[in-house]
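--- STAGE predict ---
source: upstream dedup step, 1 unique chain passed
mode: sequence only
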Amino acid sequence: MWTIAATERTKAPSSLVWEIYCDFDQWRQWDYGLALYKPEGPFATGTSGILKPVEGPELAFQLIHVEEGKCFVDRTPLGPEHAIIARHELTPLPDATQITHTIEIEGPESERIAQEMGFCKEELYETVSNLARYAERDPKAEETIA
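--- STAGE serialize ---
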């Protein structure tokens, strides 16, 4: 298994970051690597959907764990032997929220697959950092930060 993770803090409350996760049409505003992320049903465990990297094909995914307001995990199969597992976790802190995204690739030669797909820690950190700053620019965040 191959794994990378990135963590960032935001002054925005975790409830606001969760709202941003649930606004799928706006993901491109903070996740520049995804052109599309669309569950085909409720944002709940078991729901399937489609995602599309900016420079890649559409891929089917399934939400394998959703804990409203706290975390969600999706699984994207890459053929019979491999899958991408993406974990998105929110940890409330005093006056902040910690955002952690973890990407895992399951299967043989997972490091090679990660390299071929262009996964890197710097890009994941950029995504998490973009999300943190995006949340702080939301008018609802300004009310709680002030």
